[in-house]
Amino acid sequence: GIGWATHTVHHSSPYFNISVAYRFGPLDGVFPLPFHIPLVIAGFDPLVVFFAEAFVQLYQTLLHTEAIGKLPRPVEAVMNTPSHHRVHHGSNPQYVDKNYGGVFIVWDRLFGTFEEEREKVVYGVLPPLETVNPAVIFLHGFTRLYRQMRAAGNLGTKVGCLVRPPG
Predict the structure, then answer these.
(1) How far apart are CA 139 and CA 150, in angstroms?
(2) What is the pLDDT of residues 130-158, one digit of tens each?
C-alpha cells in the first residue's frame, strides 16, 4: 500500500545502524499529520503534540542498533527494544510484518503481531534492492505500487493496492 511505498526507503538498507533511522521516504513527513491534527483540534497544546512526536522519534532512533543485545525481561515485555526493532526490519519470513510498536511492544503482543528475535536478522526489503542509487531507492516503493496498480484488473483491486500491507 501507499504507507509501505513510502516507508520502504527506511527498510531498504541491508544494514541496521543509527543511519537507517534517518532514511525517510517521500511521504514519511506527512503520515503523522492525520494523528496529530485531531489532537490539536481536540484541544491538546500543539507544542505538547510536537514534543511527544519528537520524543517518539528520538526513542525510535535509539532502537536502530545491533550493538545492544536483549534487555532485562521486564523491559523486553513492555517496551520496544533494539531486539524487537531488529525483527521489525527483518526480511526473514517469520519477521515480516511484525513488531510495529513505536515505544511500547505490548500492542504487538495484544494484537498478535509480536515476534521474538530468535535467529540472525536479514535486513532489507523483499525482493532485495540491487542498487545504491538514492533516486531509485527513494522512489522504489512508488514505482512498485504503480506497477501493481497497473496490473490490477478492476478499480476495486486497484484501490486495494493502496491499502494493502507489505508482506
Answers:
(1) 17
(2) 999 999 999 999 999 999 999 998 999 99
